[in-house]
């Protein structure tokens, strides 16, 4: 409740929380739009491989040109302005930067930047949920050992879901399920950057197709992003993935407690204490009314008759039995809300969600029949999508994490729908992301081993 007050105190002391942003894409730009207006916060540097784009994004976010004209990090600190650079390493290493926001979306880059931040004693806000899904439990463990904070990004759905779960448990409720909404039909798993417009045009009015990256957008459509985000939630909260992954049941906001309850109680869940993503589309293609496509939710159990009576009295969206109830947030504001994580890490030394174990994984799954010799094109591409899978199963079967299914060549044919294994591809064992992932697998051989 006091983050804004703590920020004002830092402002009054003449030492605002200093931030280095790595990656000036959509999420980073949304953060910049509010960071300039947040008292007690100073974005010292914006690092992006495309400096011209970063400057353009700052202008788009409402920054006057003189505000990001600092020639160096030192100048930016003195003048309370911002330095734009392509040198992420220098930004991380500078002693004047307290918090690193990693927003590149590239797993290997996120891992490298997080390791560097830990080595330099910096807090990390990991917008890059792809990197978190690939190696987050190990990165969080390393950060903790170094006395720094590793945090999921407030405004993104995983951190908001973690907050729902924390609220429920702090109130003494048993968490039955938690997750988010999305638009989903079973054939979406086959979508690719070439045909994704057939889906996007049905619900998004994007006039300038050159303004978006279809491969990135496709990762939201084909189910990959949902698997990544729910993996982050499981690894941070102790919830578990279902053995078959996400089933994307259609549900209105008012049916959450009826749908997201165990099958034994009339719902769709394999068991209690899991993640699930609801769809805003019925299986026949009709839109679900009052859907939760941009929101988040938690379903709880009333373990006493009195609690269940209160669910009814206070319109807590109970299921038909009255035993379960749902709380939801209808939207998430992405980077516009990210300052909460930055302030929490720097001022409370508390993450807005962080991995505490390796419970869930995201494994590369064939979108179509794949042939030996093909080179995989990663998240959102033509070859594979990411399926949420229990970490124990992934480890036991040697399954290939989605974050490493990029620019590697297949050794054998894979049937459509098949889960790829490490042994199916030719990978470089000296690649940083491979080495860190293998280190994590060894460190968390028992999937629930604490971070």
Strand order of the largest sheet: 3-2-1-4-5-6
- Classified by CATH, the class of the largest domain is Alpha Beta
What global shape is seen? Answer: globular
Count of helical stretches:
16
The low-confidence parts are: none
Question: How many strands, what sense, and barrel or not for the largest sheet?
Answer: 6 strands, parallel
- Terminal residue distance: 27 Å
Give the helix proportion (percent range): 25-40%
Decide which structural class fits the backbone: alpha/beta
The percentage of residues in β strands lies in: 15-25%
Structure description:
- This protein is of the alpha/beta class and 451 residues long.
- The protein folds into three domains: 3-155 and 337-348, Rossmann fold; 158-184 and 223-331, no CATH class; 360-443, Antifreeze-like/N-acetylneuraminic acid synthase C-terminal domain (Type Iii Antifreeze Protein Isoform Hplc 12).
- It is 35% helix and 17% strand.
- It has 16 helices and 15 strands.
- The strands form four sheets. The chain has a six-stranded parallel sheet with strand order 3-2-1-4-5-6, with helices on both faces.
- Strand 5 (123-126), helix 7 and strand 6 (150-152) form a beta-alpha-beta unit.
- The model has no long low-confidence stretch (mean pLDDT 96).
Task: Reconstruct the topology from this structure.
Elements: H1 3-12, E1 17-22, H2 26-35, E2 41-47, H3 51-60, H4 73-79, E3 83-85, H5 88-93, E4 99-102, H6 107-119, E5 123-126, H7 129-146, E6 150-152, H8 157-170, E7 174-182, H9 197-203, H10 214-221, H11 224-237, H12 256-259, E8 274-279, E9 296-301, H13 305-313, E10 324-329, H14 339-348, E11 360-366, E12 375-377, E13 384-390, H15 391-397, E14 406-410, E15 425-426, H16 432-443
Parallel strand pairs: 1-2, 1-4, 2-3, 4-5, 5-6, 7-8
Antiparallel strand pairs: 7-9, 9-10, 11-13, 12-14, 14-15
């Amino acid at each position: 409740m006091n983050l804004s007050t703590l920020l004002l105190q830092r402002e009054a002391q003449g030492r605002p929380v200093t931030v280095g942003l790595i990656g000036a894409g959509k999420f980073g730009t949304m953060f910049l739009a509010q960071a300039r207006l947040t008292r007690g916060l100073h974005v010292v540097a914006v690092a992006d491989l495309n400096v011209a784009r970063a400057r353009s994004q700052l202008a788009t976010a409402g920054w006057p040109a003189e505000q990001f004209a600092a020639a160096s990090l030192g100048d930016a600190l003195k003048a309370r302005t911002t330095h734009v650079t392509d040198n992420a390493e220098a930004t991380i290493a500078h002693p004047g930067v307290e918090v690193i926001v990693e927003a590149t979306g590239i797993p290997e880059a996120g891992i490298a930047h997080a390791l560097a931040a830990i080595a330099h004693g910096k807090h990390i806000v990991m917008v890059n949920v792809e990197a978190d899904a690939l190696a987050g439990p190990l990165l969080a463990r390393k950060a903790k050992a170094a006395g720094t904070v590793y945090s999921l990004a407030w405004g993104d759905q995983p951190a908001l879901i973690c907050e729902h779960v924390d609220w429920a448990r702090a109130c003494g409720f048993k968490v039955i399920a938690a997750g988010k909404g999305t638009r989903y039909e079973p054939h979406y798993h086959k979508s690719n950057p070439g045909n994704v417009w057939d889906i996007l045009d049905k619900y998004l009015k994007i006039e300038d197709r050159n303004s978006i990256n279809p491969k990135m957008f496709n990762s939201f459509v084909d189910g990959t992003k949902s698997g990544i985000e729910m993996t982050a939630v499981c690894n941070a909260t102790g919830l578990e993935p279902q053995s078959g992954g996400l089933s994307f049941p259609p549900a209105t906001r008012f049916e959450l407690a009826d749908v997201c309850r165990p099958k034994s109680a009339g719902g769709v869940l394999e068991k209690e204490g899991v993640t699930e993503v609801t769809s805003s589309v019925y299986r026949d293609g009709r839109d679900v009314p009052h859907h939760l496509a941009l929101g988040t939710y938690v379903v709880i159990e009333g373990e006493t008759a009195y609690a269940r009576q209160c669910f009814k009295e206070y319109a807590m969206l109970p299921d038909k039995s009255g035993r379960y109830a749902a709380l939801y947030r209808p939207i998430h504001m992405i980077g516009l809300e990210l300052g909460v994580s930055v302030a929490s890490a720097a001022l409370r030394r508390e993450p807005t969600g962080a991995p505490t174990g390796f419970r869930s994984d995201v494994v590369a799954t064939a979108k179509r029949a794949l042939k030996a010799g093909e080179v995989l094109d990663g998240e959102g591409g033509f070859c594979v999508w990411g399926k949420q899978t229990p970490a124990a199963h992934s480890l036991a079967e040697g399954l290939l994490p989605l974050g490493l299914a990029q620019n590697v060549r297949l050794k054998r044919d894979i049937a459509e729908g098949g889960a790829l294994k490490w042994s199916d591809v030719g990978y470089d064992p000296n690649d940083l992301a491979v080495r860190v992932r293998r280190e994590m697998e060894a460190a968390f051989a028992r999937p629930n081993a604490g971070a």
